[in-house]
Design a protein that fits this description.
Length: 128
């Protein structure tokens, strides 16, 4: 049997990481689907709940973009869907008209609280 080169071991490790990520995202999608959410939707709600914990607290979309692994356009579409569902509200920054804020609504905060244990259970089962 040939000894694996460092490059091959690194590539194998990378593929393992991708596989764990894909399985975890699929399981989160399955767990949250009955609640009308996907893994990426939850991730945005979860970040908003931690970054803007108080009622009416805002988070800049730019800050979300740095933490969610989506393109700017995909994030914008996702926020649009969450807004349409009444889970978040968007507003333009008064000081910098290019800046956009996102606020978790009461409905969004309640849904996040409801599904948080489901997401954490999947993480615990697959990564714990």
């Amino acid at each position: 049997m040939a000894v694996k080169t460092a490059d091959v071991r690194l590539e194998d490790r990378w593929r393992d990481i991708l596989s764990v990520h894909a399985r975890t995202m699929c399981e989160i999608d399955r767990a949250l689907h009955p609640h009308g959410l996907g893994a990426s939707d939850f991730e945005v709600l979860d970040i908003l709940a931690s970054e803007a914990p108080g009622e009416g607290d805002q988070c800049r979309v730019q800050n979300l973009a740095g933490r969610v692994h989506l393109s700017q356009s995909a994030l914008s579409r996702l926020i649009g869907r969450l807004e349409k569902d009444g889970l978040v509200e968007r507003s333009v920054c008064a000081e910098d008209r290019r800046g956009v804020y996102v606020t978790l609504t009461g409905k969004g905060r309640a849904l996040h609280t409801e599904v948080l244990p489901l997401q954490r259970e999947v993480l615990s089962r697959l990564l714990g």
